[in-house]
Amino acid sequence: MTECESIEMVYEKHVLKIKIRGDIDHHSAKGIREKIDSNIFSKRPAMVVLDLSVVEFMDSSGLGLIMGRYATSKEIGANFLIYKPCKRVKKILELAGVERIMEIKGDDDNEEK
Amino acid sequence: MKKSDNHMKLYLPSLSVNEGLARQAVASFIAQLNPTIEEISDIKCAVSEAVTNSIVHGYKFKEGIIYIGVKYYSDRTVVIEIKDNGCGIQDVKLAMTPLYTTDTTGERSGMGFAVMQTFMDKLDVRSINGQGVRIVMTKKLS
């Protein structure tokens, strides 16, 4: 199913980990953004980790989603990091120069499937 | 004019749920050419950007029809045409500037055309203000 909007959020030791499943496009971003923001504002973590390890497709709407969540995190003073984007997702992140503003971790291990 | 080897025409309502469908349909069609994973990914992304633009900007969430035409030639060139009858673009050059967006919510990255330009070999955008947008993108597969 490509329009899956499922996200798993785990809050532990002041870190909010958000794992996104499925494609990130304009349609799925709609459902995800408010869920993430409400958790950021209610939990007020010290760090927000966006786990993209199982995301196989992302377009520029995903960039908007990421940049918006980065802004929300900064608003509450939290650090923000992107975890394990696959090669295809990384291509879009690099196009936007995202690595210049935010941390990306674990992308060396996520080999092309 | 050269005749294409194969073509497909799709008409979809401007519903955001159809963004994924548009990507999958085009990807399925070009699968006939055995593209690389990267080529499929690039084309899916470019299609997604164009269709999303029609939905978000062209029709601004009102209902309209988006036309997607795909064809390929014997030299493995893929040509994708995406058209809508939405509000059109007043200044195409300005619209295509990276990071430019008319969105005010702060959620749109303004990178749609930059993605199309980077992931495809050629991009042509025509619009008559008030009468929709026609995008033609070309990519030659390896």
List keywords for this structure.
heterodimer, A: 113 residues, alpha/beta, Transcription Regulator spoIIAA, 3 helices, globular, B: 142 residues, Heat Shock Protein 90, five-stranded antiparallel sheet, 4 helices, 5 strands, 27% strand
Summarize the structure.
The complex is a heterodimer of chains A (113) and B (142). With 113 residues, chain A is α/β, with parallel strands linked by helices. Chain A has helices spanning 26-43, 60-75, 87-95; strands at residues 7-12, 15-20, 47-51, 79-83, 103-105.
What does this structure look like?
- The complex is a heterodimer of chains A (113) and B (142).
- Chain A is α/β, with parallel strands linked by helices.
- The radius of gyration of chain A is 13 Å and the shape is globular.
- Chain A has a single domain (7-105), classed as 2-Layer Sandwich (Transcription Regulator spoIIAA), CATH 3.30.750.24.
- A 5-stranded mixed sheet of chain A has the order 1-2-3-4-5, covered by helices on one side.
- Helix content of chain A is 38%, strand content 22%.
- Chain A has 3 helices and 5 strands.
- In chain B, strand 4 (122-127) and strand 5 form a beta hairpin.
- Chain B has one domain (6-140): Histidine kinase-like ATPase, C-terminal domain (Heat Shock Protein 90), CATH 3.30.565.10.
- Chain B is globular and about 40 Å long.
- Chain B has helices at 18-30, 37-58, 92-95, 112-119; strands at residues 6-13, 65-72, 77-84, 122-127, 133-140.
- Helices cover 33% and strands 27% of the residues of chain B.
- Chain B is of the alpha+beta class.
- In chain B, strands 1-2-3-5-4 form a 5-stranded antiparallel sheet, with helices on one face.
- Chains A and B meet through helix 1, helix 2 and helix 3 of A and helix 1, helix 2 and helix 4 of B.
